[in-house]
Amino acid sequence: MAGVTLTNISKSFGKKEILKDINLEIQDGEFIVLVGASGCGKSTLLRMIAGLETPTQGQIYIGGDFVNKTPPKDRDIAMVFQNYALYPHLNVKENMSLSLEVRKVPKGEINKRVDRASEILKLDDYLKAKPKELSGGQRQRVALARAIVREPRVFLMDEPLSNLDAKLRNQMRSEIKKLHQKLKTTFIYVTHDQTEALTMGDRIAVLNNGQIQQIDTPNNIYNYPSNTFVASFMGANPMNIIEASINNGFLIFGNISISLKSILEKLPQVDRLLVGVRPEKIVCIQDASYHFNLIKFKTKVDFEENLGANKNVYFKLGKSDFCASIPSTAETNDILDLSINPRDLYFFDYISKEPFNKREEII
């Protein structure tokens, strides 16, 4: 096992800068997720750790060893791709053992490692099957098993579940997390899926435009976002963010005006700011927990999405598009009575897009 250190990493393709001054310390045995929208540079970063791309500047260390010029085969890493990359003419056992045969590992040791990986990922019944005979989830298990038999210091995973359907993704998320707990090896996992990031990682690094916006635990990423990008990107539904103003002791946003005395957070003397609230924190009035300063408002429903237990209701607050996640049993006519607890509001600087105060400082 080994930790990974990235120091001042930048990467350009021609004149296009993909990554800008990335610094990241990944602990030995940690499961870290790199998450961001398509094109943010997360897969390029993973490929540089693997040795498939070379940094324009900066240093990469694996287990304390400087590896910028070390070939991929000598970095003692294993990579799992989203397209499985299995050899179609080989059966499952042969796919799992090929890399060990190339390295001239003794046959007895190969069988031992294959048996262990097969037991962990429940592949014993498929060892003689060809990839075309397997489901997507089974193929992904084989790809994971092929990585396990290598017994690498670091596992790299590049959106390995993106080709699976929703049910299989849920199953495989659990299997990969259990796998990490069994192997206790360093996992670096790339995804654009916020749910995967929040449910799988010990820590999450959120990337945007080639830069890390925040590195923290899933709980802190969700509850204490470092800026409006992280706030609106992370979560099953993006945080609603709206421009607001302060006038004569009142906070005004959309068609809502609330006394600053009702807000349990000190706000600076500014004319403009940004207010955020998560969709799941906007509730129907009849479902709201009692709070003496509850913000109540009516809105016209534009459209809704039924998601089973809950439904997303979309509406306008002032000129801003908003979403509320409410129980699917709630009646939604043209006009909906909603409420927000002031404790659930976030406040960001209009220019820097960063929060005014840390959330734990709220009374």
Structural key phrases:
363 residues; alpha+beta; six-stranded mixed sheet; five-stranded antiparallel sheet; 8 helices; 34% strand; elongated; disordered C terminus
Shape: elongated
Give the count of helical stretches: 8
Structural class of the helices, strands and pairings?
Answer: alpha+beta
Distance between the terminal alpha carbons, to the nearest Å? 43 Å
Side by side, the strands of the main sheet go 6-7-8-3-9-10
Nearest-integer average pLDDT: 89
Main sheet overview: 6 strands, mixed
Whole-angstrom Rg? 24 Å
Uncertain stretches? 359-363
Query: What is the number of beta strands?
Result: 20
One letter per element, helices H and strands E, the order comes to EEEHEEEHHHEHEHEEHHEEEEEEEEEE
Percent helix? 10-25%
Q: What is the strand content?
A: 25-35%
Question: Summary?
Answer:
The chain is an alpha+beta fold. Helices cover 23% and strands 34% of the residues. The protein has a 6-stranded mixed β-sheet with strand order 6-7-8-3-9-10, with helices on both faces. A 5-stranded antiparallel β-sheet has the order 13-12-11-14-20. A 5-stranded antiparallel β-sheet has the order 15-19-16-17-18, with no helix packed on it.
Describe the structure.
A six-stranded mixed beta sheet has the order 6-7-8-3-9-10, with helices on both faces. The longest helix is centred in the middle third of the chain and has 18 residues. The two termini are 43 Å apart. α2 crosses α3 and α2 packs parallel to α4. A hairpin with a 2-residue loop joins β4 and β5. Helices cover 23% and strands 34% of the residues. It is of the alpha+beta class and 363 residues long.
